Amino acid sequence: MELKLKALYMPVVLRWGIIDNGYFMNKKLLFSLLLGLFISSLTAQPAVQKIVLHQNWQFSEQNKNKWYAAKVPGTVHTDLLTNKLIPDPYYRDNEKKLQWIGETNWDYKTTFQADAAILQRKNIELVFDGLDTYADVYLNGQLLFSADNMFRQWKADVKQLLKPNNTLLIRFASAKNKVDSIAKSKLPFVLPDNARTYARKAQYHFGWDWGPTFITCGIWKSVYLEAFNERPIEKPFTAVNKVELVQQPDQYGKTFYFKINGKPVYMKGANYIPSDMFTPRLTKEDYRKILMLAKDANMNMLRVWGGGIYEEDVFYDLCDELGIYIWQDFMFAGAMVPGDEQFFNNVKEEVKYQIKRLRHHKSIVVWCGNNEVDEAWHQWGWQNQFNLHGQDSAKVWNDYVRLFRDSIAAWVNVFDGTRQYVSTSPTNGWGRAKSITEGDSHYWGVWWGLEPVEIFEQKTGRFVSEYGMQAMPNYSSIEKFTLPQDRFLFSDVIHQHQKAGNGFMKIESYLHRYFLDSAKVKQLSLQDYTYLTQCLQYYSLKNAIAIHRSKEPYNMGTLLWQLNDCWPVASWSITDYSREPKAAWYAVKEAYRDDVKPVRDSVYPKDVVLKKPSFTIRHEGENLFSIVSNVDAKYVYLYKQQTFFDIDDNYFDLKAGVKKYLHVKNRYFSTKEISTIKIKSLFDVLRK
């Protein structure tokens, strides 16, 4: 109390005055004033009262009136799973069996109370930070609004409708049915690439070449009441960093690099996709673990890819804290866009809301309009595939230009004005000469073009914002989504967890080039195949990064595809859905070091002379052990059965007789554990 009274004393003294001897003219009056002000400070209401409405939710299939407990924020898939109404969507081939969920309409409802302190406020708003996606919202039986954008905040004035006891109902329509209906109504005109483009919804929910198809719905972010008498004044925005994207003509073409506070920065990083199909179940600790994998791999940039979501606040908070720069796509990927005013206005509100939400984060250094849409229009053959010629073709392209080159550019300038905007990524597709001499580059000659990794010696762009190589998920993850009878090449279940077109064929092509003859691939056990694909990804990214970094300052950025996975799958990710490293993560960690640049391998792994190694492991301390081999050994992998062995290095090479020390991370490591460690090296697979 004493501190509060002192804090109140000064304004009172200034108002009433002091006599020369320092005593107040009327001590009783002073005491009364101070006491009154103190009591009012204890009882004063905040300028805005916020009442979170996350309790007592239920959900039901529409018109079935069979209600089950629901979690908010959440999704219908996770609610069904929690209530044991469906099996694990990621297990075996359950994805195929659960498509009905995305084709069904769902209702969510709750009841809540509003006390007198809320009801007496002049203004009361119901706020949804995220509704996924097509939703009619009713309060006490009256329709408030119809939402149609997962990425917008939705508000309604409920002052006149709110009562002491209230019922809130949200009726979700199937996004798949909605977009299919819209697309059908436009026939014979077909907008590339998919009906999904009509929905302002996470595009990866409709399936991708590393992800399943789970078309979600639900209250995926917070819902709450805000009550106030006077709306708080919006605080002015001030940029924390001075960020420049330098694109200047030079003797080669045009530069593409970032200056942060006047200093050029070479960007080393990866592309980031949503870390789950059902993102509301991600916790702050999940985000920290994922982002620490980036930080510990010596990354300084992540590109938030445009087919996912604008990430949670905690994601950007952690990036601010960890010193990870963010390339932020707007949520458009691989599809042209409608040109009607309703769609444009919807996107404008989305852009306005997301920029105002995120612009204070110092981690964000650039806004980008879309992922690969410009490239797709010019290089993927859409005009012939979708019969878009003449006026139809011109309309689709003009709508694209109006949204990404004109409108969003103007909106970014209005709502931010401190960061630069690029309309698309990449600037030029990988088949065009300019992709190497200017702008950012997605170089997929490696993988899609089946070119060797060494092609980067001739085809490294100014800023390589996508490239990669596939590998299987960790074997411990495979064991979790399979039954024993599924664990062979190439079972139906294993195929279900490979979404890339001809993915296994492409892996086989690269294994043949760098590791072993194709005929031997099909003879491998699933466990050995998994190990070898991870060695392939290790080799590919180590050497690609070595080439990219050797070309600095011509090249000023290398962002591999991709950091993370949204489910257990064969993919380009260098970490597993379990949030644990794959082999390539260790290669990237070394290749992205600040103190030394990586060096290319001079010999293909298949040409290395291999002898049968014998390993000795010794306990060296409470979390320290050593390993030594009697001969040179390559891609030495230490593991445990059915669990991840968390050590500070793995898939390493050993020189004969040279002891390597390893730390077990974040726990005590006993001598007894030595006998549980298993070891695999390249000899074990190639020389069987």
From TrEMBL:
Keywords: Glycoprotein, Glycosidase, Hydrolase, Lysosome, Signal. InterPro entries: Beta-mannosidase-like_N2, Beta-mannosidase_GH2, Galactose-bd-like_sf, GH, Glyco_hydro_2_cat, Ig-like_fold. It catalyses: Hydrolysis of terminal, non-reducing beta-D-mannose residues in beta-D-mannosides. Residues 57-221 form the Beta-mannosidase-like galactose-binding domain. One of its GO terms (biological process) is glycoprotein catabolic process. It is an enzyme of class 3 (hydrolase). GO terms for molecular function: beta-mannosidase activity. Residues 258-373 form the Glycoside hydrolase family 2 catalytic domain. This is beta-mannosidase. It is found in: Lysosome. Its EC number is 3.2.1.25. Belongs to the glycosyl hydrolase 2 family. It comes from Lacibacter cauensis. GO terms for cellular component: lysosome.
